[in-house]
Design a protein that fits this description.
- The structure holds 2 protein chains of 2 kinds.
- Chain A is mainly alpha-helical.
- Chain A contains 14 helices and no strands.
- Chain A folds into 2 domains: 36 residues; 228 residues, MetI-like (MetI-like fold).
- In chain A, α3 packs antiparallel against α11 and α8 packs antiparallel against α12.
- Chain B is of the alpha+beta class.
- Chain B has a 6-stranded mixed beta sheet with strand order 6-7-8-3-9-10, with helices on both faces. Chain B has a 5-stranded antiparallel beta sheet with strand order 13-17-14-15-16. Chain B has a 4-stranded antiparallel beta sheet with strand order 2-1-4-5, with helices on one face.
- Classes of the chains: A mainly alpha, B alpha+beta.
Chain lengths: 268, 318
């Protein structure tokens, strides 16, 4: 064996060993523990009313946060790349705030603004709207933490495609809307798709911010991640593992749908 | 359609790209905007298309003031330097784009796209994507796409700039023929004087955002209005403070009236023509261009003393 192929082998084993240790073993173990006592037992754990409610609440949060952040993300990316306006640099760095700030801090900030004693909270409560310890607050928290993904994925793609195709469409008589729909959007679609996948994954897995604003009421304000914690703390390990597996399956299918889409979209 | 620009000015920050340009382009003509990079020629073209808004001045197309008309309503065909193909569409869909937007009936679109594919010699490529085409083919597709909507004016920004020399030569001749067939008012931007001479009926020479001269190719070459034009549209050499084209230098082996004594330093045979490098008595280099036959008749050799005289002066240097 040449020294070259030996070093390649060493490199590969190190990389794979690292992955196995950090990723595959823990996740695999969760799957193993879940189905240790058979499929029926696992099924029973994930079909309790609290688990079902947690599942649907998670889906609801994702279904609200992802489309909103996608629309906002594409619009913000267009504004940053295609337009010059005062405060553009500041706007661009503000978008990274959710990356930099710990989710717990995000949750606390939301409580400060929308809580009963917060800026808006009192006024909202007088009008019968409860944000904190209720679903609206959890939606806000999810939107906040998953905000930057679409923007950050779309900006480099927009820069790369340049303005010539859009200008060409304009000289051929296309309006702004038509140009966006038929030229810009198809050109950035993979950036958007990847941003959506990342946003979805982040929204599914969010724990800290949602935890602070939710109030942890089982069957009411408990997402899957919070449900996992709840089961874990109640020494119901089977329930915790089973809910974790549901989360993992959701995340994995998100990534898989992305690869499928990409294969179908080739070769453009 | 005719195009008239009056007092057009455009700056980007401190940089004045186009400085008080007035210009008239006749209906159906073929005009070149010629100048070095940064001379404002592309900006001027984009102003005509409506892709840039001038700071001041008017743009009149076919007698109507279009200064405030958005690009999409100007009926102008624009071909970009890098072709700007719609990468996610086939050649057919690229060409049909403008027609689809105008809600032209599907049957008519198919007919028109077929005609255009023939016009630009891309018949077999309708179903291909731009990434599968060569540079020259992409260029022709971009032209067909611009021509599809029957624009009143065709604008081309460095149309052959990104192509290799052979393809470039071919496309130049082809563009000339195309213009004879289609007869749409055409303006193209180039930094290549040979290209401008070969294709255009009228050349507009630009430098630092200003027009240096407007004229037919021969006029610009033989009667350059400024020193800049003189140097830009062809080679020049200096004899005794005067500027002259190297092929307008007469060489004699015996003293002649008004001749300057010079030493033949090198003789370079470049196929049909011969380039003679000389040094005058005051040590200044001069070069002359002769045909092979002229050179043989003179029996020139290196190290010989000759007498040179311009047979046609361009303009005395101030």
């Amino acid at each position: 064996m040449s020294s070259r192929s030996r070093s390649t082998l060493a490199l590969r084993s190190t990389a794979l060993g690292y992955l196995a240790l950090i990723l595959v073993a823990p996740v695999g173990l969760v799957f193993y523990r879940t189905f240790e006592h058979g499929f029926a037992a696992a099924w029973h754990s994930v079909t309790t009313p609290a688990a079902q409610h947690a599942f649907w609440l998670t889906v609801e949060l994702v279904a609200i946060a992802v489309p909103l952040n996608t629309i906002f993300g594409v619009a913000a990316a267009l504004a940053i790349v295609r337009h010059r306006f005062p405060g553009r640099a500041l706007f661009s760095s503000l978008l990274d705030l959710p990356f930099a700030v710990s989710p717990v801090v995000v949750g606390l900030a939301l409580v400060l603004v929308y809580g009963r004693k917060g800026w808006f909270g009192g006024w909202l409560a007088d009008h019968g709207i409860q944000v904190i310890f209720s679903v609206p607050g959890m939606v806000l928290a999810t939107i906040f933490v998953s905000l930057p993904f679409v923007v950050r994925e779309v900006i480099p793609v927009l820069r790369e495609i340049g303005t010539e195709q859009e200008e060409a469409a304009t000289t051929l008589g296309a309006s702004l809307l038509v140009t966006f729909r038929r030229i810009t959007l198809p050109a950035i679609r993979w950036g958007v798709a990847y941003g959506v996948v990342l946003t979805t994954a982040r929204a599914l897995g969010e724990f800290g911010a949602v935890s602070v604003v939710s109030g942890h009421v089982a069957g009411q304000t408990e997402t899957l991640t919070l449900h996992v914690q709840d089961r874990f703390e109640a020494f119901d390990l089977a329930g915790a593992y089973a809910a974790s597996v549901v989360l993992a399956i959701l995340a994995i299918s998100t990534l898989a749908s992305m690869s499928l889409l990409k294969r179908r979209g080739a070769p453009a | 359609m005719s195009i008239e620009l009056s007092g057009v000015r455009k700056s980007f920050g401190d940089f004045v790209a186009v400085d008080d340009v007035s210009l008239e382009v006749r209906d159906g003509s073929l005009t070149a905007l010629l100048g070095p990079s940064g001379s404002g020629k592309s900006t001027l073209l984009r102003i005509i298309a409506g892709l840039e808004v001038p700071d001041s001045g008017r743009v009149v197309i076919a007698g109507a003031d279009r200064t405030d008309t958005p690009a999409r309503s100007r009926d102008v065909g624009f071909v970009f330097q890098h072709y700007a193909p719609f990468k996610h569409m086939t050649v057919r869909d690229n060409i049909a784009f403008g027609l689809k937007i105008r809600k032209v009936p599907r049957e008519r679109i198919r007919e028109r796209v077929g005609e255009l594919l023939g016009l630009v010699h891309l018949e077999g490529y309708a179903g291909q994507y731009p990434s599968q085409l060569s540079g020259g083919q992409r260029q022709r597709m971009a032209l067909a796409r611009a021509l599809a909507v029957e624009p009143r004016v065709l604008l081309l920004d460095e149309p052959f700039g990104a192509l290799d020399a052979t393809v470039r030569k071919e496309l130049r001749a082809w563009l000339r023929r195309l213009h004879d067939d289609v007869h749409v008012t055409t303006i193209f931007v180039t930094h290549d004087q040979e290209e401008a001479m070969e294709i255009a009926e009228q050349i507009v020479v630009l430098n630092e955002g200003r027009i240096e001269q407007i004229g037919a190719p021969r006029e610009v070459y033989e009667h350059p209005a400024t020193e800049f034009v003189m140097g830009f549209v062809g080679p020049v050499t200096h004899i005794g403070g005067s500027m002259v084209r190297p092929h307008d230098v007469d060489i004699a082996t015996t003293p002649v009236a008004g001749g300057t004594e010079a030493l033949v330093e090198r003789i370079l045979h470049l196929g049909f023509e011969v380039r003679v490098e000389l040094v005058t008595g005051d040590g200044l280099p001069v070069h002359a261009q002769l045909t092979r036959q002229e050179c043989e008749e003179l029996e020139l050799r290196e190290g010989q003393i000759v007498y040179i005289r311009p047979n046609r002066l361009l303009r005395a240097v101030a």
